[in-house]
Design brief:
By secondary structure, the protein is α/β, with parallel strands linked by helices. The protein is 43% helix and 18% strand. A hairpin with a 3-residue loop joins strand 1 (2-5) and strand 2. Helix 3 (62-77) crosses helix 4. 38% of the residues are buried.
Length: 142
């Protein structure tokens, strides 16, 4: 688990999303799970759990992509500490988090993903990135 934005946004993988002790240790209040191929996490009832099953590549429903980014942006705006996770934590979670954080910080997703690459290894899927970039202008900003 890697802290991307101070005291509000962490990135992780399926193991991080299913480890209540690590979530509580970091005072995480919500988990945004993006892994299509993984079973939903069974977390303690005091944690918020949002699941947007995304494929690591093309073929995702645009509305699911948009809702996933909107969810992360909503948690950022409400100062809800969250973990965004996918299977390996190297493509879907960094992609969705980069676009949401870019909207929150009013910057470019490419600038955010560059920062992420300095914190952890990445294997960003180009098709997924392009699909998210396509729906990004439809994101609702508060």
């Amino acid at each position: 688990m890697v802290e991307l934005h101070p005291n509000s946004l962490w990135l992780g993988n399926m193991f991080d999303a299913r480890d209540p002790s690590a979530l509580f240790e970091n005072e995480i209040q919500a988990v945004v799970d993006l892994a299509y191929e993984e079973k939903p996490a069974q977390l303690p009832r005091q944690l918020i759990y949002c699941r947007y099953p995304l494929i690591d590549g093309g073929g995702n429903d645009e509305s699911v992509l948009l809702h996933a980014i909107q969810c992360v942006l909503g948690f950022l705006n409400s100062e809800t500490k969250m973990l965004v996770a996918c299977s390996a934590g190297m493509s879907r979670s960094p992609t969705v988090a980069a676009f949401a954080l870019a909207a929150f910080l009013k910057t470019k997703p490419t600038e955010v993903i560059e920062k992420v690459s300095q914190l952890k290894g990445l294997e960003i899927n180009g098709e997924l990135w392009n699909n998210v970039d396509k729906v990004f202008p439809r994101l609702r900003h508060w």
